[in-house]
Amino acid sequence: MKLTLAGNDYSFSSVELGGKTEDGTAFLLLKNSSGEQVANFGQLSSLEGFLFTEVLQDIPEIVHRDIATLVAVALSATAQEGVEITATATYNATPDGTPTLYYQWQISSDGSTWADIAEATSATYTPVTADVDKYVRLLVSASGCAVGKETSAASVQIIAAV
């Protein structure tokens, strides 16, 4: 098939949803019969009407690229006052790029009722004296080239500094 856009001809045999850029803009990849990329059309919204009404209706194969999904969050280190705890995210597939991750650490005195820790919104948290004998966990959500929300398992009770 051939697409002429802005005076340029593109011969292709399939269209693949390329995903989204960091700003959320979708893009399409045109590929030849060998699977090689012929063109990459960004800002899909500006081409959407033309591509979908004039081109996509005649394309026999549209391949959708799965976006990686966040499936687990693990906490490292011993839960101890003054010792940094680090989070590690696990995905069901390798993300095409670096996902944007949003973090919120929470604390609980009983391991079942949780409250957000003010300003604890990074991949690491260092327990303070007020956290001793309590539990922490981490909520993580992903966007961009990965999606999903996960909560880590609760830590063991935080112990006092040695």
Q: Short description, anyone?
A:
This protein is mainly beta and 162 residues long.
> CATH top level of the largest domain?
Mainly Beta
CATH architectural type of the largest domain: Sandwich
Radius of gyration: 23 Å
Task: List the secondary-structure elements in sequence, H or E.
Answer: EEEEEHEEEEEEEE
Which stretches are poorly predicted, pLDDT < 50 over at least 5 residues? 42-65
**What is the averaged pLDDT score?**
75
What brief labels describe this structure?
single chain, 162 residues, mainly beta, Immunoglobulin-like, 2 domains, seven-stranded mixed beta sheet, four-stranded mixed beta sheet, 1 helix, 13 strands, 44% strand
Helix/strand layout:
Blueprint: E1 2-5, E2 8-11, E3 14-20, E4 26-31, E5 37-41, H1 44-55, E6 62-64, E7 68-75, E8 85-91, E9 100-108, E10 115-116, E11 124-125, E12 135-143, E13 146-151
Structural features, described:
- It is a single chain.
- The N and C termini lie far apart (70 Å).
- The chain has a 7-stranded mixed β-sheet, with no helix packed on it. The protein has a 4-stranded mixed β-sheet with strand order 5-4-3-6, with helices on one face.
- It is mainly beta and 162 residues long.
- The protein has 1 helix and 13 strands, in the order βββββαββββββββ.
- Strand 12 and strand 13 form a beta hairpin.
- It has one helix spanning 44-55, and strands at residues 2-5, 8-11, 14-20, 26-31, 37-41, 62-64, 68-75, 85-91, 100-108, 115-116, 124-125, 135-143, 146-151.
- The protein folds into 2 domains: 2-64, no CATH class; 68-151, Immunoglobulin-like (Sandwich), CATH 2.60.40.
